[in-house]
Q: What sequence folds into this?
């Protein structure tokens, strides 16, 4: 068991303007853009975004939050400033960000921006 984290892309027209707790049609073609395992501080950042956008789930587990261009801008700044929130959880492990994870995270931001330019909706979900 542990914290498994995914960023998924789907045609933006299929979900409209939804920002949290997305209703993805069963027949929608989705693709994984990013996978992390036990990147707890990134999970904490995503949970803060979820709450900011109105998410109400108590545990933030198996919930979704959409990433827009301005969210990616903030995430990039926070990664570079080493300002992801310290986040702990029973199943989250203890893997603080380092130079390698920062590079991977910044590469993710670049891929997500390309997906947005290609009319894809980008959203985060996790399971622990």
A:
């Amino acid at each position: 068991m542990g914290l498994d984290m995914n960023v998924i892309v789907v045609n933006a027209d299929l979900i409209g303007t939804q920002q949290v707790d997305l209703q993805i049609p069963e027949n929608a073609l989705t693709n994984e853009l990013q996978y992390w395992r036990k990147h707890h501080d990134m999970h904490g950042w995503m949970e803060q975004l979820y709450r900011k956008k109105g998410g109400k789930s108590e545990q933030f587990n198996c919930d979704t939050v959409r990433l827009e261009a301005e969210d990616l801008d903030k995430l990039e700044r926070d990664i570079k400033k080493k300002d992801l929130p310290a986040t702990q959880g029973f199943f989250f492990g203890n893997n603080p960000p380092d130079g390698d994870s920062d590079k991977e995270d910044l590469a993710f931001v670049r891929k997500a921006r390309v997906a947005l330019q290609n009319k894809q909706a980008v959203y985060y979900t996790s399971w622990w």
Observations:
- Residues 4-127 form one domain.
- Helices lie at 40-52, 69-80, 99-117.
